[in-house]
Amino acid sequence: MVISLNTCLGFVCLLLCHWVRTASPLNLEDPNVCSHWESYSVTVQESYPHPFDQIYYTSCTDILNWFKCTRHRISYRTAYRHGEKTMYRRKSQCCPGFYESREMCVPHCADKCVHGRCIAPNTCQCEPGWGGTNCSSGEFPPAVVCLGMFVLEGPPCLQITLSHGFPSSSLCRMCCGFLDPTQRYNFLSICVCIVYRTEFRERYLG
């Protein structure tokens, strides 16, 4: 009965060990997760036939031993020993070009995306106005010349910049024409906010 109990406990431990080894925090349904089967060894308790010398008696003509003779033969009994068992598990890991972050596989860009984000292996998605392989070069330098007009910077230009989808860090100039140059803070003018050489015309009450 003791042997049977030990066998059951060993089997339960084996199952638990197998479950722990095969558990993976990565979601195998994630297209960025790759998997493969690998073998590993575990120590198990196994039974085997153990030989021993069995003594038995037979009838014979030996009168001195009351016609009983001793005989020997090799018999086997069940014994137990520790052995190695090969098992297989499915191991998940991030596919090439991805790395694990918070139990997810995210793309890796060898060259850091300066003004953008990494959307695929070594592929950056740049913010508006930025380009290059790592989003470090401005695609359209901001125009700074306002021919025959007054250069206005600050909140009005910033509001127009944001309303057209440019980031707040965008460089812009608002070029305004005045009805009366002497009343520069009390007039109705037509302003052109220039961001990355793109003009956005707005009426601005100065």
From TrEMBL:
Segments forming domain EMI: 30-107
One Pfam family from the record: EGF_PEAR1L
Major subcellular site: membrane
Signal peptide boundaries: 1-25
Entry keyword set: Cell membrane, Disulfide bond, EGF-like domain, Glycoprotein, Membrane, Repeat, Signal, Transmembrane, Transmembrane helix
Subcellular location: Cell membrane; Membrane
Name used for this protein in its record: Multiple EGF like domains 10
Assigned GO CC terms: plasma membrane
Membrane topology category: Single-pass membrane protein
Record flagged with keyword Transit peptide: no
Superkingdom of this protein's organism: Eukaryota
InterPro entries for this protein: EGF, EGF_PEAR1L-like, EMI_domain, MEGF_diff_regulators
